[in-house]
Amino acid sequence: MDYIAYLHKDRNSDYGVSFPDFPGCITAGKTLDEAHRMAAEALALHIDGMVEDGDPIPASSVLDDLAGDPARKDAVAFLVHVDPHIDRTVRINITAREKQIERIDQLANQAGMTRSAYMVHSAINLSGAGRKRASARKRPPTPKTRRTSL
Hints:
This protein is of the alpha+beta class. The protein has two domains: about 1-90, Double Stranded RNA Binding Domain (2-Layer Sandwich); about 90-135. Helix content is about 40%, strand content about 15%. It is built from three helices and four strands; from the N terminus they run βββαβαα. A four-stranded antiparallel sheet has the order 3-2-1-4, with helices on one face. A hairpin with a 7-residue loop joins strand 2 (about 15-20) and strand 3. Helix 2 crosses helix 3. The radius of gyration is 23 Å and the shape is elongated.
């Protein structure tokens, strides 16, 4: 699915990107390429969050319908492609102590992520690191040799 994005550039600033169909979804990049990449990532994450929250995903606006949009002033419009249904999001239920959830929320906030995104990201990264440690432990011990003098 393609959505319209606005590219903004002020003097002494990075390239900013906003989405008229998704108020509050913004990102930036130091270069045009980075701004375009970040736009696709930000939009995909935003849509994932909306799906997770049960919010409806809006249809893409038509550029002609946005002609009078004040946010479009001094901006370049471009399309950002997202595939929101490649991986279906599944809701799960976990049990944790209240203090643990508070700490997870703090860490997620510091990382600029939702609680769910932070927990998935952390679990995947931890399992990758855990496999490395486990495979290192399973290696047979190196035989020790003794030096003897002749």
